[in-house]
Amino acid sequence: MRMQEEQLILHQEDVDLAGVKRVGLMGGTFDPVHQGHLVTAEAVRNGFQLDKVLFVPSGQPPHKREKLITPKEKRLLMTELATVTNPYFGVSAVELNRAGFSYSADTVSYFRQLMDVDSELFFITGADAILEILTWKKLDDLFAGCTLVAATRPGFQPKVMADWLEGHLKQEFLEKVITIEVPAMAISSTDIRDRVAMGRSIKYLVPEPVEQYIYKQGLYAE
Ligand code: ATP
Ligand code: MG
């Protein structure tokens, strides 16, 4: 029964990418999705003339395994609520529908196969996420399928990140990493969860429907 329910909730046709030339993927736990994610995705879309940016909520990430994560159905719904007003944004449940954790490389391969061969795929991450890059599996597959866009976040200076990447990545991979500065937004999901738990306002840190949903569902209230 539970299985059936899950399939019903998460069954979602993935976006039709035929004819779409420049696609961005924005992966994350999105617990909850916030303005930092949205501003970053929009900056990259605009800066690199993307035709589409797909938000891809992740299953249980290995590095967050020990923490309690909001059920995937709720994270998916919040991501939908947050992105619905931007015609360039979409949401894919592909990682949620897979059993276990998905590596970015597998997700990239999945979307590649939905895209025309001459289309370009951009994998968008925050600077903190890219610093975990060495721990990612299948780097060769990842870079074969996409260009990595590293968005700076407060506390991550472009120079420091560039030096770090140079010290850690092969030249052929370095060529496939672009950095972009986004307006400084010190917003994080962790901070939002803490605020809710302490009864502090999260207004304007998340889109209003997401805020309403968090309260209605009693999320993060401890
Ligand atoms: P948590 O605090 O739970 O780790 P988070 O705010 O970092 O959450 P994630 O879902 O982990 O959000 O992040 C998804 C992606 O968005 C990552 O690539 C991350 O680097 C990026 N990101 C998160 N917050 C921001 C922000 N304020 N500005 C730019 N990028 C961000
Ligand atoms: Mg994070």
Oligomer designation: single chain
Helix content: 40-55%
Q: State the secondary-structure class.
A: alpha/beta
Number of strands: 6
Mean pLDDT: 88
Q: From N to C, what is the helix and strand string?
A: HEHEHEHHEHHEHHEHH
Radius of gyration: 17 Å
What attributes characterize this protein structure?
6-stranded parallel sheet; 15% strand; globular; binds adenosine-5'-triphosphate; 42% helix; 222 residues; binds magnesium ion; 6 strands; 11 helices; alpha/beta
Overall description:
The chain has 222 residues and is of the alpha/beta class. The chain has eleven helices and six strands. Helix content is 42%, strand content 15%. The protein has a six-stranded parallel sheet with strand order 3-2-1-4-5-6, sandwiched between helices. Helix 3 runs antiparallel to helix 11 and helix 5 runs parallel beside helix 7. The longest helix is centred in the first third of the chain and has 13 residues. The protein is globular, with a radius of gyration of 17 Å. The protein starts with a helix and ends in a 5-residue tail after the last helix. The mean pLDDT is 88. Bound molecules: adenosine-5'-triphosphate and magnesium ion. The site of adenosine-5'-triphosphate has 19 residues, from helix 2, strand 4, helix 6 and helix 10.
